Protein backbone atom coordinates (compact mmCIF):
# COMPACT_ATOMS: atom_id res chain seq x y z
CA UNK A 1 0.00 0.00 0.00
CA UNK A 2 1.36 3.39 -1.02
CA UNK A 3 1.79 5.81 1.89
CA UNK A 4 1.24 9.56 1.64
CA UNK A 5 4.31 11.79 2.00
CA UNK A 6 3.10 13.44 5.21
CA UNK A 7 2.68 10.03 6.83
CA UNK A 8 6.03 8.86 5.49
CA UNK A 9 7.83 11.85 6.96
CA UNK A 10 6.38 11.24 10.40
CA UNK A 11 7.12 7.52 10.38
CA UNK A 12 10.62 7.92 8.89
CA UNK A 13 11.56 10.50 11.51
CA UNK A 14 10.23 8.28 14.29
CA UNK A 15 12.11 5.26 12.93
CA UNK A 16 15.38 7.16 12.61
CA UNK A 17 15.05 8.50 16.17
CA UNK A 18 14.39 4.99 17.43
CA UNK A 19 17.52 3.74 15.63
CA UNK A 20 20.17 6.46 16.14
CA UNK A 21 23.59 6.06 14.54
CA UNK A 22 22.30 3.12 12.51
CA UNK A 23 22.55 2.91 8.73
CA UNK A 24 19.05 2.47 7.31
CA UNK A 25 18.94 1.60 3.61
CA UNK A 26 16.81 3.38 1.04
CA UNK A 27 15.54 -0.04 0.00
CA UNK A 28 14.13 -0.60 3.50
CA UNK A 29 12.17 2.65 3.43
CA UNK A 30 11.12 2.10 -0.18
CA UNK A 31 9.63 -1.31 0.61
CA UNK A 32 8.14 -0.09 3.88
CA UNK A 33 6.13 2.66 2.19
CA UNK A 34 5.75 1.28 -1.33
CA UNK A 35 7.53 4.33 -2.75
CA UNK A 36 10.30 4.93 -5.25
CA UNK A 37 13.83 5.49 -3.91
CA UNK A 38 13.82 8.94 -5.52
CA UNK A 39 10.81 9.89 -3.38
CA UNK A 40 12.52 8.51 -0.27
CA UNK A 41 15.60 10.58 -1.05
CA UNK A 42 13.49 13.72 -1.26
CA UNK A 43 11.86 12.87 2.09
CA UNK A 44 15.26 12.39 3.69
CA UNK A 45 16.35 15.79 2.41
CA UNK A 46 13.38 17.39 4.17
CA UNK A 47 14.16 15.55 7.41
CA UNK A 48 17.84 16.48 7.13
CA UNK A 49 17.04 20.17 6.72
CA UNK A 50 14.61 20.09 9.66
CA UNK A 51 17.09 18.52 12.08
CA UNK A 52 19.78 20.92 10.95
CA UNK A 53 17.49 23.95 11.34
CA UNK A 54 16.43 23.00 14.84
CA UNK A 55 19.93 21.96 15.96
CA UNK A 56 18.80 18.51 17.08
CA UNK A 57 21.12 16.28 15.10
CA UNK A 58 22.73 15.39 11.81
CA UNK A 59 21.24 13.21 9.07
CA UNK A 60 23.85 11.83 6.70
CA UNK A 61 22.93 10.19 3.42
CA UNK A 62 25.32 7.65 1.97
CA UNK A 63 25.10 6.97 -1.80
CA UNK A 64 25.52 3.62 -3.49
CA UNK A 65 23.85 0.22 -3.48
CA UNK A 66 24.72 -0.36 0.17
CA UNK A 67 24.04 3.23 1.20
CA UNK A 68 21.21 4.79 3.12
CA UNK A 69 20.72 7.29 5.92
CA UNK A 70 22.20 7.65 9.41
CA UNK A 71 20.74 9.96 12.06
CA UNK A 72 23.14 11.18 14.75
CA UNK A 73 21.33 13.01 17.55
CA UNK A 74 23.18 15.87 19.23
CA UNK A 75 22.64 19.41 20.46
CA UNK A 76 23.70 22.53 18.62
CA UNK A 77 25.61 25.09 20.68
CA UNK A 78 22.45 27.11 21.33
CA UNK A 79 20.43 24.07 22.37
CA UNK A 80 23.24 22.84 24.61
CA UNK A 81 23.44 26.22 26.34
CA UNK A 82 19.71 26.13 26.99
CA UNK A 83 19.83 22.55 28.29
CA UNK A 84 22.69 23.44 30.67
CA UNK A 85 20.80 26.53 31.86
CA UNK A 86 17.75 24.38 32.59
CA UNK A 87 19.86 21.95 34.62
CA UNK A 88 21.49 24.78 36.59
CA UNK A 89 18.06 26.17 37.45
CA UNK A 90 16.91 22.77 38.71
CA UNK A 91 20.02 22.18 40.83
CA UNK A 92 20.21 25.71 42.25
CA UNK A 93 18.04 24.94 45.31
CA UNK A 94 19.26 25.23 48.92
CA UNK A 95 17.01 22.34 49.99
CA UNK A 96 19.28 20.01 48.00
CA UNK A 97 22.12 20.47 50.49
CA UNK A 98 23.49 17.22 51.98
CA UNK A 99 26.17 16.85 54.69
CA UNK A 100 29.75 16.66 53.45
CA UNK A 101 29.25 19.04 50.56
CA UNK A 102 27.08 16.67 48.54
CA UNK A 103 23.92 17.60 46.65
CA UNK A 104 20.64 15.72 46.42
CA UNK A 105 20.07 14.79 42.77
CA UNK A 106 18.00 11.60 42.94
CA UNK A 107 14.73 13.31 42.02
CA UNK A 108 16.31 14.87 38.91
CA UNK A 109 17.91 11.60 37.83
CA UNK A 110 14.49 9.99 38.05
CA UNK A 111 12.86 12.47 35.66
CA UNK A 112 12.66 11.46 31.98
CA UNK A 113 12.87 15.08 30.78
CA UNK A 114 16.12 15.63 32.69
CA UNK A 115 17.59 12.32 31.52
CA UNK A 116 16.69 13.26 27.94
CA UNK A 117 18.76 16.45 28.21
CA UNK A 118 21.65 14.83 30.08
CA UNK A 119 21.81 11.87 27.70
CA UNK A 120 21.83 14.04 24.59
CA UNK A 121 24.40 16.42 26.09
CA UNK A 122 26.77 13.54 26.78
CA UNK A 123 26.15 12.13 23.30
CA UNK A 124 26.96 15.59 21.90
CA UNK A 125 30.33 15.61 23.64
CA UNK A 126 31.39 12.34 22.02
CA UNK A 127 29.56 12.73 18.71
CA UNK A 128 32.72 12.56 16.60
CA UNK A 129 34.68 10.11 18.76
CA UNK A 130 34.90 6.35 18.45
CA UNK A 131 33.02 4.94 21.44
CA UNK A 132 32.22 1.28 22.09
CA UNK A 133 30.88 1.24 25.65
CA UNK A 134 29.42 3.60 28.27
CA UNK A 135 30.47 2.72 31.82
CA UNK A 136 29.10 3.70 35.21
CA UNK A 137 29.11 2.42 38.77
CA UNK A 138 26.01 0.91 40.35
CA UNK A 139 23.52 3.27 42.06
CA UNK A 140 22.67 6.74 40.80
CA UNK A 141 24.83 6.74 37.68
CA UNK A 142 22.84 3.96 36.01
CA UNK A 143 19.98 6.07 34.54
CA UNK A 144 22.49 8.62 33.23
CA UNK A 145 24.58 5.93 31.55
CA UNK A 146 21.46 4.38 30.05
CA UNK A 147 20.29 7.71 28.66
CA UNK A 148 23.70 8.48 27.13
CA UNK A 149 24.01 4.97 25.71
CA UNK A 150 20.58 5.26 24.09
CA UNK A 151 21.52 8.41 22.15
CA UNK A 152 24.92 6.98 21.26
CA UNK A 153 23.40 3.59 20.38
CA UNK A 154 26.07 1.83 22.41
CA UNK A 155 25.86 -0.71 25.25
CA UNK A 156 26.44 0.39 28.82
CA UNK A 157 28.11 -1.62 31.56
CA UNK A 158 27.67 -1.37 35.32
CA UNK A 159 30.60 -1.66 37.71
CA UNK A 160 29.57 -3.39 40.95
CA UNK A 161 30.74 -2.81 44.49
CA UNK A 162 30.40 -6.55 45.12
CA UNK A 163 30.06 -9.41 42.66
CA UNK A 164 26.82 -11.26 41.93
CA UNK A 165 26.77 -14.94 41.07
CA UNK A 166 24.93 -14.08 37.85
CA UNK A 167 27.89 -11.95 36.71
CA UNK A 168 30.21 -14.93 36.28
CA UNK A 169 33.98 -14.40 36.55
CA UNK A 170 34.90 -10.81 37.40
CA UNK A 171 37.89 -8.48 37.45
CA UNK A 172 38.25 -6.37 40.59
CA UNK A 173 40.38 -3.42 41.67
CA UNK A 174 40.87 -1.62 44.96
CA UNK A 175 40.53 2.14 44.94
CA UNK A 176 40.68 4.99 47.44
CA UNK A 177 37.53 7.00 47.97
CA UNK A 178 38.42 10.61 47.24
CA UNK A 179 36.04 12.00 49.86
CA UNK A 180 36.34 9.68 52.87
CA UNK A 181 39.84 8.31 52.10
CA UNK A 182 38.83 4.68 52.55
CA UNK A 183 39.93 1.72 50.46
CA UNK A 184 37.05 0.16 48.56
CA UNK A 185 36.64 -2.49 45.88
CA UNK A 186 34.80 -2.49 42.56
CA UNK A 187 34.24 -5.35 40.14
CA UNK A 188 33.21 -5.88 36.54
CA UNK A 189 32.26 -9.08 34.74
CA UNK A 190 34.89 -10.33 32.31
CA UNK A 191 32.21 -10.73 29.63
CA UNK A 192 31.19 -7.06 29.58
CA UNK A 193 34.34 -5.39 28.26
CA UNK A 194 36.73 -6.40 25.50
CA UNK A 195 40.41 -5.54 25.18
CA UNK A 196 40.86 -2.42 23.08
CA UNK A 197 37.31 -1.16 23.67
CA UNK A 198 36.86 2.62 23.79
CA UNK A 199 35.02 3.55 26.99
CA UNK A 200 33.17 6.65 28.14
CA UNK A 201 32.70 6.89 31.92
CA UNK A 202 29.68 8.73 33.33
CA UNK A 203 28.48 9.33 36.87
CA UNK A 204 26.08 11.55 38.76
CA UNK A 205 28.42 13.50 41.06
CA UNK A 206 32.13 14.31 41.24
CA UNK A 207 33.76 15.30 44.51
CA UNK A 208 37.14 13.75 45.26
CA UNK A 209 37.19 11.62 42.11
CA UNK A 210 37.91 8.30 43.79
CA UNK A 211 35.11 6.38 42.09
CA UNK A 212 36.01 7.71 38.64
CA UNK A 213 39.66 6.93 39.25
CA UNK A 214 38.70 3.40 40.27
CA UNK A 215 36.77 2.89 37.02
CA UNK A 216 39.77 4.18 35.09
CA UNK A 217 41.94 1.58 36.83
CA UNK A 218 39.41 -1.11 35.96
CA UNK A 219 39.46 -0.06 32.31
CA UNK A 220 43.24 -0.46 32.31
CA UNK A 221 42.89 -3.99 33.75
CA UNK A 222 40.84 -4.91 30.69
CA UNK A 223 43.42 -3.32 28.34
CA UNK A 224 40.65 -0.99 27.17
CA UNK A 225 40.89 2.73 26.42
CA UNK A 226 39.38 5.63 28.32
CA UNK A 227 37.82 8.13 25.88
CA UNK A 228 36.52 10.58 28.49
CA UNK A 229 34.64 11.14 31.74
CA UNK A 230 31.45 13.16 32.19
CA UNK A 231 29.39 13.84 35.31
CA UNK A 232 26.05 15.53 35.85
CA UNK A 233 27.32 17.69 38.72
CA UNK A 234 30.72 18.64 40.10
CA UNK A 235 31.05 19.68 43.73
CA UNK A 236 33.84 21.49 45.54
CA UNK A 237 36.65 19.66 47.33
CA UNK A 238 39.31 20.86 49.74
CA UNK A 239 42.07 18.55 48.49
CA UNK A 240 43.49 17.48 45.15
CA UNK A 241 41.17 15.49 42.93
CA UNK A 242 42.18 11.99 41.90
CA UNK A 243 41.13 12.52 38.26
CA UNK A 244 41.84 15.18 35.66
CA UNK A 245 40.00 16.18 32.50
CA UNK A 246 36.52 15.31 33.73
CA UNK A 247 33.65 17.16 32.07
CA UNK A 248 30.82 18.44 34.23
CA UNK A 249 27.43 19.72 33.12
CA UNK A 250 26.85 21.68 36.34
CA UNK A 251 29.20 22.98 39.06
CA UNK A 252 27.85 23.29 42.58
CA UNK A 253 29.18 25.15 45.61
CA UNK A 254 27.60 23.80 48.80
CA UNK A 255 28.37 25.91 51.88
CA UNK A 256 27.84 24.27 55.27
CA UNK A 257 27.55 27.29 57.60
CA UNK A 258 24.82 28.82 59.69
CA UNK A 259 22.79 29.01 56.50
CA UNK A 260 23.31 25.96 54.29
CA UNK A 261 23.37 27.25 50.73
CA UNK A 262 23.84 25.87 47.25
CA UNK A 263 25.12 27.90 44.33
CA UNK A 264 24.95 26.19 40.93
CA UNK A 265 26.45 27.38 37.67
CA UNK A 266 27.39 25.82 34.31
CA UNK A 267 30.23 23.33 34.42
CA UNK A 268 33.03 23.08 31.87
CA UNK A 269 30.89 21.26 29.27
CA UNK A 270 30.45 24.20 26.89
CA UNK A 271 34.15 25.05 26.97
CA UNK A 272 35.14 21.41 26.46
CA UNK A 273 32.76 20.73 23.59
CA UNK A 274 32.39 24.09 21.81
CA UNK A 275 35.60 25.89 22.65
CA UNK A 276 36.94 28.50 25.05
CA UNK A 277 34.80 31.35 23.77
CA UNK A 278 32.12 29.99 26.08
Which features does this protein show?
278 residues, alpha/beta, Arc Repressor Mutant, subunit A, Rossmann fold, 6-stranded mixed β-sheet, 27% strand
Tell me what you see in this structure:
Belongs to the purine/pyrimidine phosphoribosyltransferase family. PurR subfamily. The protein folds into 2 domains: 69 residues, Arc Repressor Mutant, subunit A; 198 residues, Rossmann fold (3-Layer(aba) Sandwich), CATH 3.40.50. 37% of the residues lie in helices and 27% in strands. The protein is α/β, with parallel strands linked by helices and 278 residues long. Helix 2 crosses helix 3. The longest helix is centred in the N-terminal third of the chain and has 18 residues. The mean pLDDT is 90. The strands form 4 sheets. It has a 6-stranded mixed beta sheet with strand order 7-6-10-11-12-13, sandwiched between helices. The protein has a 3-stranded antiparallel beta sheet with strand order 1-3-2. The chain is globular and about 65 Å long.
